[in-house]
Amino acid sequence: MRIGQLSRSELAGRLARGGLSLATGPVTTRIRTSIPGVAAHLAALYADFPLGEADGIADFSCQLRPPRGVRRYYRPQVLFLADGRSVFKPLAYHQAGPMLEWGMNWCIASQLRDRLIFHAAALERGGRALLLAAPPGSGKSTLCAALACRGWRLLTDEAALVELGAGRVSVAGTARPVSLKNASIEAVQRLAPEAALSAPCRDTLKGTVAHMRPPPESVRRAQEPAAPAWLVFPRFVPGAPTRLTERSRPEAFMGLAANAFNYAALGRRAFHRTADLVERVACYDFRYSRLEEAVQVFDELATRREPSAVPGAGEPGYHGRPHGPGVDGAAAGGAGERAARHPVAPGR
Amino acid sequence: MQERLPEPAARHLWGGYLAAERNAEAVRWELEQLDGGLLGRLSPPVALKGAAYLLAGLPNAAGRVCHDIDLLFPADEVGRAESLLFFEGWQASPHDAHDQRYYRQWMHELPPLVHRRRGATLDLHHNLLPETFAVRVEPRRVLDAAAPLAAPWRLRVPAPEHLALHAAVHLFAETEWQRGLRDLYDIHALVEHFQAARGDRFWEELLDEAEALGVAWLVEPALACGRTLLGTRVPAAAAERLERHGPPRWRRGPMRALFRHGLNTRASRTPRRDALARAALLLRGHWLKMPPTLLARHLLYKAFRAPQGARAGGGETPTHRHG
C-alpha cells in the first residue's frame, strides 16, 4: 500500500496513533505526529512511497511535536525527536515539513553505521551511478533535481549509502524528495515546469525552502542500488561558463572522504571502501551557472562509453588490501570537518 | 538458534559493532600516545573506566563505546600532568571562571582536556568522587592497589574490587542517567567476571573495600538493580552483608522504583514516570555532590549568570550539518 492510497484523514490518523511506517528504499522510518503540516507534507511529496509493515521493524522512530511550555499558545514551534530525544533546536511551527526532512537526514547521517554514508547526491542512468559530492551551498541539490527531471533516476539528493560488506561497490539512496532553496526553486521550475514542488516554506534557517516530489519511477525502484561510474564535485559559480575538468584520483579520494558522514567512525573500513569506490569511477570537477547546459554535459557523459581509467579496476581490493596502511587516529583528523569527528569525542 | 535475527535489526547491531571496534582501536591508539609521551616523567597513572576495561581485556569492553579517556593521578601530580600534556596538544576546553573554580576546587577531575588536532577528550582525575561529595573517598587506596599491565605499558589499571566499585559508585552518584543501562551492564559484567576468576574471595574483598571507602550504601542499590534487570548473581553471604547498608525499609520501595525508571531507555512504555525519575536523579546527584549552600550557589549561577551558550546546551540547528 502507498501513502497516496490513504485518505487525508486516514493519513493523519495513522500519524497521530504512531502507526505510520514510511519505507524509503533501504531505510524505514516510523513517524508520529499530530501536526497537520506533516500530514500535508507527506501527502504532497510522498504519495508514491510504500508503507512499511505496521508492526515491522523501523530503522528510526521519530516524533514531531510542539515543545511543552506556554510559548505554544502565542508562538508555536516544532521539535523533532529521534527515539524520544530532541535533536535540534525548535523551528517555527509552519516549518514542520522541512523539520521532518532535516530530521530524517540527521537520522541517516548519525545513526547508520553499517554502511558508509557520503554527503552526496546520487543518480542512475543505464545502470551506472553518478555521485555529486559537495558541501551545502554548492548547487548539488539543484543539479540533482534538474537531472531527475530529465531522465536520470534519483537515488538521493543528500546521503549516498555504500555497503561495506559486499564485494561489488554499489550506491543506494532513499529516493526522498529533493530539497531546493531560494533561487534554485525558480531555476528548477524554469527548467522543468512539470516538476511537482511543495509550497515554498519561507524564513527557515536556509531562507525559502521547497521540496521536489521524486519521479514515481525513482520511488518504485528505490530498493535498487547502482554501480558507481562517475564522481563529480559540482560548484555553482554565478556567471561562470560550464566546465567539466578531470580531477586526479588522490584528490577525488580526499574530496569524497571529506564529504563522508561516518568516515572517522568506521576507520579503516571507510578508507578501503572509499578507495574501492574512487578506483571504479571517472572523477571530475564541475563548475556551472546555467542549469540547461549542465544537464547537457551529463547527458553526454552518460552516452559516452567511459574507458576504464585504471587497469584492474573492477576487481575488489585492487588498491592492495590487506597490506595497505590502516587509518589510525591521527590520519582520521585529516579528513575534513564532517569526517573529522573523532571516535573519542563526547557523544550526545 | 532456530530463528534468525531480522535483517534490519542485524544491520543496526552490526553497525554498532563496527563503531565500537573502531572506537576501541582509537582509544588504544590515544593511550599509546599518552603512555609513550611526556607523562613518562610522572609516576604511572591509572586508567579508569572504559580505558581500563579495554587494557585489562575485560568482557564488558567488547562493544562498549567510550567517549573520553579517564586517567587517575596522585593529587600532587595532576597539575603537572596537565602542564606536560599541553605540549602534546591537549588543551583545557574553554570554561568561564565559575566553571574553572567548580572543577578545580570542588570536583575530582580537572576541566576536560581536548586534543587540539584530533578533538579527542581526556579527563585527568585525582579522585573517584568530588571533593565535596557526601563521603570522602581516599584515592591513595586505589592508586596503591592498582595493578601494572604487561610491558610496554607504563599505565596501570585499578585492582578488581576498585574497578567494580568505581563502576557502581560512578553510576549511583551520577546526575545524568542517559547511559545508565550501559553502566549497569559494566557493574554486572565486572562482578560476574571476577567472581568466576577469583570466587567468593572477590566478594569479600569488594565489600571490605566498599566499607573501608565508605561507599557500600552506593554498592547496595547497584547490585540490587543488577539483580533485577540483568540477573547479576550475588552470593547469599554478600547479599546479607550488603543488606545492612541498604536504605531503611520504608524508603526501599520508592528508591528502587526511582532507579528502575531512571535506567529505562527513551523507548519505554512509561515516558512520563521515567522523565520524573530522571529529574529526581539529577537533584539527588547534585545533592550528594555538594553541600546545600554550595549547590544553591552553583544552580543559581547556572540559571542566571552562565553565558547563553553554556546554558542552551544540546541541539544543533538543523542546518548546521545538513544541506
TrEMBL record, chain A:
GO MF terms, alphabetically ordered: kinase activity
InterPro entries: HprK-rel_A (IPR027600), P-loop_NTPase (IPR027417)
Annotated spans, Disordered: 306-348
Keyword line: Kinase, Transferase
Gene3D superfamilies xref list: P-loop containing nucleotide triphosphate hydrolases
Protein known as: HprK-related kinase A
Naturally occurring in which organism (per UniProt): Halorhodospira neutriphila
